[in-house]
Amino acid sequence: MKITNLKKLKPKEAIVFDLDGTVAPTKAPIDAEMATLITRLLAVQKVVIIGGGKYGIFKTQFLQQLKAPKPLLKNLFLFPATATSFYKYDAGWKNIYALHLTTAEKEKIKTAFRDVFEKTGYHHPRKVYGKVIEDRGTQITFSALGQDVVAVLGAKRGVPLKEKWLHENRAVKMNMARHLAKLLPDLEVHAAGFTSIDITKKGIDKAYGLEQVKKHLGVEIRSMLFVGDAIFPGGNDYAVVKTGVDYVPVSGPAQTKTIIRALLAKGE
Question: Is 177 part of a structural domain of the chain?
């Protein structure tokens, strides 16, 4: 159920956050205030992060900035690459599962991208930063401006560039995703983030992620709250709606901070 009035937030066993655009600016690190708020939240309940980025991105965007005391990290659970993998803390971060794509699936995906670029007449930007199509093991990800645009240009230049690309190419991106879904019926296609399209094994989405939270943490979906910036038709967080989870849509990290403060006011 959608929660629009923060006063109606009820105590939950686990708070589940999307990463990019929700807890952190796209491909950029969380700021000090967010790190402090998340740390305070970890002191009172379980916190789950589900995002499209690979584990390495979770580390640079989130973990390296968090600096939470090690005992609190046992309340933090990470589901990178759209929950195709799961990490928990036990004297260090341990990988619990990883749903790797097969070599044949990866080749099929790369061929599909080439076909879609040709069929849609898509032209890559003159300047890209890093790989445009990245093999993340459990996920293949297309990033229109390259995987490293924010890392190379910094958040102040890289994030606005990604926003500009999305503003000018949203319809193009969604059209590419529709074509890919037709070419790859046995796989899952997500039009994710600002400039990305993610492809995983079939049935993998944020709803799958919540089911994995339930399985591995022993928390019922009715006892979770999901917070994300793309909980709308076509958005890569929208799949959670079908699970019946309580959810709060946000426009970015600033609103997420407001929600965390509201949760802390009820729980501390």
Answer: yes
* Domain enclosing residue 189, as ranges: 103-201
The predicted model scores a pTM of: 0.87
Task: Put the strands of the sheet holding 224-228 in their side by side order.
Answer: 93-98, 85-89, 76-79, 46-50, 14-18, 224-228, 246-249
Going by C-beta distance under 8 Å and a sequence separation of 6 or more, which residues neighbour residue 4? 248
Residues sharing a CB contact under 8 Å with residue 244, sequence separation 6 or more, in sequence order: 1, 221, 222
Report whether pLDDT(268) > 60.
Answer: no
Tokens of 139: 């996920």
Task: Dump pLDDT digits (tens) for 141-177.
Answer: 999 999 899 889 988 899 899 989 999 998 999 999 9
Q: How far apart are the first and last CA of the chain?
A: 24
What CATH number is associated with residue 175? 3.30.1240.20
